[in-house]
Each structure stands twice: as C-alpha cells, then as structure tokens.
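Notes to self after the call with IL:
- keep both proteins in one doc
- input above output, always
- annotate only the second one for now

Protein 1:
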Amino acid sequence: MDSDHRAVTGARIPDPAVALTSLLRGWWEAYPGTRPTQKALARRAGVDQATMSRYLNPGRPMAAPPRVVRVLHTELRADPARLEEALALAEAVHAARRVPRARGAVVGEAVAGGDGAPVRRRVGVPAAVRVLGHLVLLAAAVWVGAWLRPLPPGPSPISSASAPAAQPSPGPSWPVVRLGDVLWEARTVQHLLNAHGHRVEVTGTVDAATVTAVQGFQSERGLDADGRVGPRTWPRLVVTVRAGDRGDAVTALQALLTNAGHPTAVTGSFTTDTEDVLRAFQSAHGMPATGIAEPPAWLALMGSQQPRLHG
C-alpha cells in the first residue's frame, strides 16, 4: 500500500504517549543485572508509585515529563543516544496538551436532498476564526463589566506610605533542646552525641547525663557550654552521612525520616532504600535530591517532625 493510499484511508499515526511509554518500558526491561523496582524509581523521580507504573505501562500510557525522562535515563543506564528521542516524544505530548482541540461548528448551508427537500450540511469553521470570535466576545464582556462597575476609592497617601512591606515566610529554624525535652528531640541529640564519641544512653529524655555530654561537646568546639542544643550547636552536632555509612548518626536520620512521613527501616545502616527515601524527602521540600544528609537536610527534617514536647 503506497503512501497516497494510506493518506486517503486514514492510517493510524503512532501516539507519542504510547511510543514514549514503550521506550521507557524497554529501558526498564533491558536494565543490566537486577533492575530497580518501580517503587525505587518513583522515589528517585519524586512521584508516587502508581504514577511511575503508568509511565512504564504502554497499555495505560501516561507520558512522563522531561524531568522524569532524564531521571529514568540515568537510573536505568539507558543508551545515551535514545535520550533525545525520549525527550522529543515527551515534549510532543505536552505541547499537544497545550493546544486547544478544534471542534467543528455547524453552520446552515442549504443543499438539495435526494428528494429535492432542503437539508443542512455540516461545515467546519476554521479553529482560528472561532478562537478569534471567543476573544472578541471576552474582551467585550470585560469592557462592559469595567464600564458598569464603579471605581474603587484610591488609597490614602498616608496609609500607602505607612503600609508595611510584605515579609517572606520564614523557613525552618533549629530547635532549642534542653533539660527535660523528650521523644524525637532527645533521641536525636543522644544518637548524635554517641556518633561524636560522647557516649550516653538513648532514653528519649534529655536527662542530666545528656546535658553533661552536651556541655563536653560544646567545650571541645569552643562553644558556650550551656548544655542546650540550639542554632550554634546543631550545625556542629549533625553529621553528613550518605549511602554505605553506618552508626548512630544514620539511626538518627532514619528515625527523623520515618517520623516526617517518609518511612524507612531504622537499622543504623545507610542502605539504598534509605537513600531513595531521603531523595524523595528532599525533592518534596524543594531541595536538590542528592540522597546525602547534609545540614540543610537535617534542618528540614527537624522542621517536619511532630509537635514538640517538653518535660
């Protein structure tokens, strides 16, 4: 069948969403070795598992956005030459969604029917003409509404000058943990003290022994040894941890992630699962999804905990 005949008979054009989903599915199935789960891929891309399943299911295609395509290309170790093809498909799908679909309007063109009676034939009005008509009507409605509505009184020069400027909302701040504090605050301080060699029992309560250990830690680092863990002590106390690390600092991190609604096993071993969960948390909070727990990540985690309790 030649190309002219295909054009006349209306041969199907491949759906770019199906083509993209099939391509991503092929990357996943061709992954060398044990391929990552869809749950793990979803965490790395910062989406839920159901959405990732749709991105990889040609039977129920959902076109992945370019950002997710790049993540999958990296995580699935796909052929570098296929990235541009996948990005082009993603852009094609999302560009098509931004173009309004033309609907054929019916105008009354009278023609003669087979028995001589007049009938109506559907004639499509060009999309550009219909859009222009809608814009004209919209502009007229806005003009009439503005003309009929009374003008609001102008602001008083005094009130305008004295009105305070809008202040940006403050970000999370380091908590101040002191004698008698309990639950996550106490456990986090105690785990991190142990990570620095100041051994204390993890009781979930800031007791006298914990305060003494905090004072020793502060003295070593030239801080005011007041026994309270606040904005000057926290940045020294938190530990940068990443995949492969073990110990008390990892335990503290995993407990904070779990309590912030991103559950991971609290084992003290920084596994790939912990890394995936941390990436998802960072992405959800507008941070670079590095999978490395540095001070900004610790600060965001503490700002996402349950309400503070004091003894």
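Protein 2 (the one to annotate):
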Amino acid sequence: MRTTTGLLTAALGAMIAATMPATAQQMGKTVIRTSATKPYRFRHSRLAVPTVLDGIPRTSVEALGADELDVYARYERGNDMITVYVYRQVSGAVPVWFDRARHSVETRTDLFGTVTPAMAPAAFTPPGQTTPSGLIGAWSITKPPYRGTALALLPLGEWLVKVRYSSSTLDGAGVAARMPAVLAALDWPKNVATGPAAQPIADCATPLTFPTTAQPVRDEQALTSAAITGGLFASLLAKATPEPAATSVLWCRDPAPARVGGVYRANAATDAYLLAFTDSGRGASVAPDAMGVLLDEKAPPRWSVSLDDLGATTSYPPMTALPRPDQVIAALEGPALSRTSTWGKKRQVDVNSAMVGSGK
C-alpha cells in the first residue's frame, strides 16, 4: 500500500469538502442517471425521492466518492433549495453529525450574515419509526438570497439521512413549518429498525486532560503489531451486527480546540474521543489500544488513531498517551500503517510495508 502526505492531505480535503456547496462538491462527484418523471430510489438505503418536493422540482441526483455511499438529491426553484443527503454511518451518531451541521450554519457569517436560531434543536420521531431518533433545527439569516434555513437529520438503518431546506421567502420559523411535509413526502423503506432516541449535544461537564508526554510510537515491532491488529479490528467491527437501540450512548462536546472539526466523547469518556469533520459522517477515532493489550499484557499503554471514511478505516501509528486533536491531524497528514475496506463482500487489509520494517 502506498500512502503519502500528499494523498492523505487530499483525502482530508475531500472529506471536508464533502458537505460544502458549489465547486468544493465537484471533487469525486458523479451524476446518477434518473427519470425526469419518476421517483428515484437510492441503491443501498432504499429511500426514494420524488420528482417534486414541496413544489420544488428535482434537478439532479449525485454521488460523492465510490460505491454510492454518499449520495444526494438536489431540488431547486430560483434561489430556493432542498437537498436530501444519504450517507453511511461509520462512527459517531445523529447528535454528533447534527451538531457539526449546526456549527457550519451558525459560524458561516460570510455565507449567511447574521444567523439567529428560529427553532432550537429538538428531537422528533421520523416517519415509520417509533422513537424520537432524529434532530431538527432552523435559523433565520440576513444575507441574501436566503431568509431562512432548516435542517433535519435522522437514522435509517446503517444510513443517515440529512434534509436541508433553504428559502429566499420564508424565515427560519417558516421553513421549519414546512419540514414535516417535506419528510412525509419522501418514500421511506418499510420495516426499518427504529433508531436510538436522540438529544441535542451538550458540553461535556469536565474537559479532557491531555498529557504533555503523548508522542507517536516509533518502535518497529510495536508499529508492525499495530498495523496488523488495527486492520483486523476494523474488519471485525465492519462485520459486526449493529447494537440495538437500547445500548445507544450519550455524546457530549469537548472544548478541546482543533484545526479541523470538533471533539466529541461517548458517555463522557476521559480516555477516548471522536474528532468529527464537518457533518459528512467522517472522522478520526482515538481510543486505548485494546487489541494490543490482549496480545501483549506487558506492553505499555498506547492509544490507537484511525481515520473512519465511509468505505474504509485507515490506521496510523499509535500514541504513547491521549493525543491532542492537532496531534491527531498531524498523524493523518503522515504515513498510514494499514487500510481496511469496510464495505462490500471483501474485507481486505492492506499493510504499509514501508512502515512495518519489511520495506526497510
């Protein structure tokens, strides 16, 4: 496997660009052929989108990246726009990715001007489900051409569905009032397991503490072990049956600064976190190296670092202690140890021989 700084930087750029408008979405974009007179059913999630949504015609159906793991339908009428995104859930949960979407709206003053919440983020029960597993929010904005925008995010089996509605005539409250009809107009697949109850993200009660001693592991034998076990662990997780809704975790937002994305902790963990990039479902996971401990009880504690993309997990050199977010980003910009495919019939693990000794 060949992994270079340039390739990793490009991959990170693609992840960040995945939910950006206009030219940024040109990267890796494929237009999907559809009928102008019939609904289109997404291949994997089986969600179908109509030709017209809330009086706005469908203008395109597109995919970002390979295998249609990140797809969206666009509706446009003048400056009014609805976009229905469907992408695979590989890490985090609805509250995490909704919070990243909220952040992107509330901090983009260059695009939206003054942003005022018109509907505080709240849980709702998606069509066909029995628990309030989705989150919805709306904002009024001052920079033309838009007056209001609303966002809904919900689970659909192993997929996430995000609906964004921006209007040039309705303020935030007006767009929020239209969202139930928009969601109801989509053709949802039958017999989908209900998702876990969701609630808006809150700040963690106690911030993470990052040791000053955290450094990348340099030992060749440890890197070889991490490359192999990291790939196998990712493969096992990809094959695992999803946890039932009753075992869902409570996520909180940590204030740790990061050059890209935000830091989120499951059940207020003090030794692990997810560095979530935008709201596209991609992120970097940091956690104690449990596989390494199982193989060698005498090994010193180490923290694994992995990049979770929609179709693959990439492992990087572990750290000697819990790393700061900027240290994680620096690791992602360097050479990887292994890459494991997590989608499709094959679960291939590619090891970077240049990092584990045999290539030296």
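Annotation: Residues 1-11, 14-27, 240-246 have pLDDT under 50 and may be disordered. The CA atoms of residues 196 and 243 lie 10 Å apart.
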